[in-house]
From TrEMBL, chain A:
<dbReference type="Pfam" id="PF01132">
    <property type="entry name" value="EFP"/>
</dbReference>
<dbReference type="InterPro" id="IPR020599">
    <property type="entry name" value="Transl_elong_fac_P/YeiP"/>
</dbReference>
<keyword id="KW-0251">Elongation factor</keyword>
<comment type="similarity">
    <text>Belongs to the elongation factor P family.</text>
</comment>
<dbReference type="InterPro" id="IPR014722">
    <property type="entry name" value="Rib_uL2_dom2"/>
</dbReference>
<dbReference type="GO" id="GO:0043043">
    <property type="term" value="P:peptide biosynthetic process"/>
</dbReference>
<dbReference type="Pfam" id="PF08207">
    <property type="entry name" value="EFP_N"/>
</dbReference>
<keyword id="KW-0648">Protein biosynthesis</keyword>
<dbReference type="Pfam" id="PF09285">
    <property type="entry name" value="Elong-fact-P_C"/>
</dbReference>
UniProtKB/TrEMBL annotation, chain B:
<dbReference type="InterPro" id="IPR004364">
    <property type="entry name" value="Aa-tRNA-synt_II"/>
</dbReference>
<dbReference type="GO" id="GO:0006430">
    <property type="term" value="P:lysyl-tRNA aminoacylation"/>
</dbReference>
<dbReference type="GO" id="GO:0005524">
    <property type="term" value="F:ATP binding"/>
</dbReference>
<dbReference type="InterPro" id="IPR006195">
    <property type="entry name" value="aa-tRNA-synth_II"/>
</dbReference>
<keyword id="KW-0547">Nucleotide-binding</keyword>
<keyword id="KW-0436">Ligase</keyword>
<dbReference type="Pfam" id="PF00152">
    <property type="entry name" value="tRNA-synt_2"/>
</dbReference>
<dbReference type="InterPro" id="IPR018149">
    <property type="entry name" value="Lys-tRNA-synth_II_C"/>
</dbReference>
<dbReference type="GO" id="GO:0004824">
    <property type="term" value="F:lysine-tRNA ligase activity"/>
</dbReference>
Amino acid sequence: MASYSTNEFKAGLKVMLDGDPCNIVENEFVKPGKGQAFNRVKLRNLMTGRVWERTFKSGESIEGADVLELDMEYLFNDGEMWHFMKTDGSFEQYAADKKAVGDTEKWLKEQVTYTVTLWNDNPIAVTPPNFIDLEVTQTDPGVKGDTANGGSKPATLSTGAVVRVPLFINEGEKLKVDTRKGEYVGRA
Amino acid sequence: MDKSVESWRPSAAIETLCERARLLAEVRRFFAERGVLEVETPVLGHAGSTEVHLDSLSTEATTPAGRERLWLQTSPEFHMKRLLAAGSGPIFQLARSFRNGEVGRRHNLEFTMLEWYRPAWSLKALVDETEALIRTLLPSAGVRRLRRYRSLFREMLDVDPFTASLAALQHLAGEWGGIAMDDIERDGCLDLLMSMAIEPQLGRDGIDIVIDYPPSQAALARHVTDVEGDRVAARFEVYVDGLELANGYDELVDASEQAERFAEDNRARARLGKPLVESDRQLVAALEAGLPESSGVALGIDRLIQLALGRDSIAEVMAFPTSRC
């Protein structure tokens, strides 16, 4: 894998730090007039999602990370692993573990396309599409005029996610949901 | 390079460029009123800056002397000093300057340096004039405070930058940077602490003038004795809103000391594996002929305009930063 000098640092570059693949979020060049230059870098650890702040001496090099982000369709869960298939026509399959799937588990629906992050050809993260259509499997019947809860109530969706919905939503309806905020957008 | 279709557009709004022009006109009026002559000197020279941590750009040119390596200036300092030695009197210049690798929110490879020299002026008088210039562009700037380099380190980091051991400085800098600093020299550690721990806190409610730098960070400034009896560099730096704006010197006029500093710079460059730079023999010759005792200051005009217009980055006050040129 190639290595990158601080001069090549930019947002989106994938590098290795402390043995984990990281995504550079922000890179700030710091230099007193005629003094030594440094780069203050914010990196997201792709394994943990945590953001690290590190300083590099300008000109220093670090190893690039063999990270790919690919579109894959979710197939099924075998009780332990979640299986995905590439959408490029190759039908190549990948199995992601609990750690890689993380919070996305509650948004996983068969035949929907997700962004799967591969590191050394292994899934390390699964990102849902920003909007997804899901069916309501359970919600209390809404009572007209009940505004004590701001006119909303919880609804459980087919994937297990729970979102707040307006009182007029009933079981069996299909909703459009924003996965980034976990919010109801409208009827699908 | 960004090849997207939108990249032909300037990074500054046209209205901002109008404001920029107005501020530059104010700078010129400021100096005209004070009888300081505007000069223009070459951007390309036969010698470059030997400063260890400044990387010059150079180019090959065909001249009457044949194929030659010419250097793009990192500041207009050397040519302006030759004018001083030739009897120009007080001079200023808005000069394009180039520093390789310096790109960021506060840096651009190519930028505009406002530099001026005052023969026979003390550093103190130049500090006053620098403050006056800054106030013409930043009328609302708060009080001015003089801060000693050494006191800043003592107050903010509980360390004496002049007497602390190298190991202690490396340890402290390592903590601030989150990196191993054991291969970094004394000044490198101080630079990290200055830019990460101290600088962000400077000029928060006014204009902070930092004086009495370590003698090893003199560049082209004279060495003098401070109130504690220690050798310091006779320089000042100006900070406003956490941003380093200007760097002034009581100029070194001793030709042999200047030649020795150039040589030492190149030895340090060699140690760090950096390319050597042709040092400016014509500047040394000018000093030998007699440079008047002078104070001079360089001010990053893009940054000052950025502050005056309340922008986040210098790219927002220049038409085309390097990424779009």
